[in-house]
Design goal:
The structure holds two protein chains of two kinds.
Chain A (H helix, E strand, L loop, with lengths): L36 E6 L6 H14 L4 E5 L4 H12 L5 H25 L3 E5 L2 H10 L4 H7 L8 E6 L2 H11 L18 H22 L3 E4 L4 H15 L16
Parallel strand pairs in A: 1-3, 1-4, 2-3, 4-5
Helix pairs in contact in A: 1-8, 2-3, 4-7
Chain B lengths: L1 H6 L34 E6 L6 H14 L4 E5 L7 H9 L5 H25 L3 E5 L2 H10 L4 H7 L8 E6 L2 H12 L17 H23 L2 E4 L4 H16 L18
Helix pairs in contact in B: 2-9, 3-4, 5-8
Chain lengths: ~260, ~260
């Protein structure tokens, strides 16, 4: 793990702290140094990504494939700090970003990387692109963020569920009665009205996601399509891009039917 | 406290000059929402390993500066309102990995920077930092994290006006620490790196790694290296001389109050 946890940045001269290019080219190719594979879903709240990843997971589980499912913001190690920061509204764009990076690092170092090295198919509901989109929408520097997450393995497939802002916001507002302070981007003083602030903030995030479609090789999924047809596309794409036999149950292993 | 009274006039807070001309106050990037130009205060960093005398010097400098009429704010590692307690808890467990720890320390650092240091600098305070991100870089490099990554992580840090490095040999630091607390901390001896089963050996090997990283940092950032093995009085005289020149304090005579007199040796 030490050999590949922090690959060198290709674009900046070694030891230069003060390079001035605002754009930093990310690493784009998935690593072939481990036998595992990483599938990621991204998109704004209400884009349908979690439903689709759940269905993909069920399909693979039922097939008996070796997989692990991971979510953004799920490490217990950092949870108390994040909760405190949010409750007391202590977080600035920078510390908000850093705490989430610490949380991700914990998951990355203790789950994602070891599992990829031991040959698992890892499914991630949100990944580093969530941080890029959301933190840039909070005015963090893209260059700083790209560096911050440099230790993250590059996904084999990143599905980007793209739904128009109105559709996504409507889905969220109908399901959730109360928007949280940071979730609604209230720290950015976009609007005094929480729902309006949420809408503006999500719009900014959506724009950031769109910016990454080409540079980060997103597979764009039309979030307005029916659930089952999206799932069909997703499964086809996974089969085409990933050799699933690597994750299939061992022949010798007996499976209860 | 008579010193405080008599020196007040003499120590009329002089407007601090922007350090080294027009160089920006960060390492390449501004913090979101921070305008560097507003800073009127000064940031003075004291670096050095445990046992190098940092906290003693900071206590003395605080008193001296206050007696000269300067408002002082302090910072240090693991002192943020946001995550200090969480880092304590993480260090107590052995499940924490190096990237997570690196990023938790970075959170702690930036929380103090944004909530304490920058507001103080805007209000003309002299900020005394008991260690700065340099220590965090040295520790992370000792654990195999790339310098380039770490430099990028701290690109938005405020560039200090003066950085002093209290240089001591690891053997001397070990002895001082042991005398003080009758124990050497797990982390300060780098035991997570499995350098040696022997605690003393581990401490020496780890601190030697840190020290060599500090030599590189010193070159890069222009630290003022002081002999941390010299007496408290002579180190303090040297610090005051340099700080007085920076702040425009004419007279640097100082005798500690009775409260701090035991440190003065």
């Amino acid at each position: 793990m030490t050999s590949r946890a922090l690959p060198p940045v290709q674009d900046s001269p070694a030891n230069s702290m003060e390079h001035n290019t605002e754009e930093s080219s990310p690493r784009l190719e998935p690593s072939r140094k481990y036998p595992g594979a990483l599938i990621v879903v991204e998109g704004i709240d209400g884009s349908g990504k979690s439903t689709q990843l759940y269905l993909l997971k069920r399909w693979l589980e039922i097939g008996g494939y070796r997989l692990h499912f991971t979510e953004w913001n799920s490490s217990p190690l950092v949870k108390s700090a994040t909760r405190r920061g949010k409750q007391r509204r202590l977080l600035t764009p920078t510390t908000f970003s850093l705490l989430h990076a610490a949380d991700f690092a914990d998951r990355c170092e203790r789950q994602i990387l070891p599992l990829l090295h031991s040959g698992y198919l890892v499914l991630a509901d949100r990944y580093i692109y969530t941080a890029f989109a959301r933190d840039v929408a909070r005015n963090c520097s893209p260059r700083w963020l790209r560096n911050l997450y440099r230790f993250a393995p590059v996904p084999d497939i990143t599905f980007y569920f793209r739904a128009p802002l109105d559709v996504a916001v409507k889905r969220i507002m109908s399901g959730r009665p109360k928007l949280k302070y940071y979730e609604a981007g209230m720290d950015l003083n976009l609007s005094l009205d929480r729902a309006e602030s949420f809408r503006i903030f999500q719009g900014r995030i959506l724009a950031q996601y769109d910016e990454m479609i080409e540079s980060d090789k997103f597979v764009v999924m039309d979030g307005t399509l029916p659930v089952n047809s999206l799932q069909k596309q997703m499964r086809q794409m996974v089969k085409a891009r990933i050799d699933l036999s690597r994750f299939a149950p061992k022949k010798s292993a007996r499976r209860a039917s | 406290m008579t010193a405080a009274k008599s020196n007040r006039k003499n120590g009329q807070p002089k407007k601090t000059q922007t350090p080294s001309g027009s160089s920006p106050r960060n390492y390449g990037l501004p913090l979101p929402g921070v305008n560097d130009e507003e800073f009127g205060g000064s940031l003075i960093v004291i670096e050095g390993m445990d046992g190098s005398g940092r906290s003693t010097q900071i206590a003395l400098l605080t008193e001296w500066l206050e007696s000269e009429g300067f408002a002082v704010e302090t910072m240090g590692l693991r002192r943020s309102g946001l995550v200090a307690k969480d880092i304590d808890a993480l260090l107590a467990e052995n499940t924490i990995t190096r990237m997570t720890l690196t990023l938790m320390y970075a959170t702690d650092f930036y929380d103090q920077l944004e909530h304490r240091i920058i507001p103080a600098l805007r209000s003309d305070f002299v900020v005394l930092a008991d260690r700065y991100f340099y220590t965090l870089i040295a520790r992370a490099v000792a654990r195999g994290i790339e310098r380039d990554y770490l430099n990028g992580l701290y690109e938005m840090a405020v560039r200090p006006d003066l950085t002093f490095w209290l240089n001591v040999r690891p053997e001397v630091a070990f002895e001082r620490e042991f005398r003080k607390s009758h124990a050497i901390s797990y982390w300060e001896s780098g035991r997570d790196l499995s350098l040696s089963d022997d605690l003393f050996q581990s401490f020496i090997l780890y601190q030697a790694k840190i020290k060599s990283e500090f030599e590189a940092l010193s070159e890069r950032h222009g630290f003022i290296a002081l002999d941390g093995e010299a007496s408290v009085v002579s180190v303090n005289n040297e610090l005051r001389k340099r700080i007085a020149a920076h702040l425009g304090i004419q007279r640097t005579h100082y005798r500690p109050s009775t409260a701090l007199a035991p440190l003065w040796r």
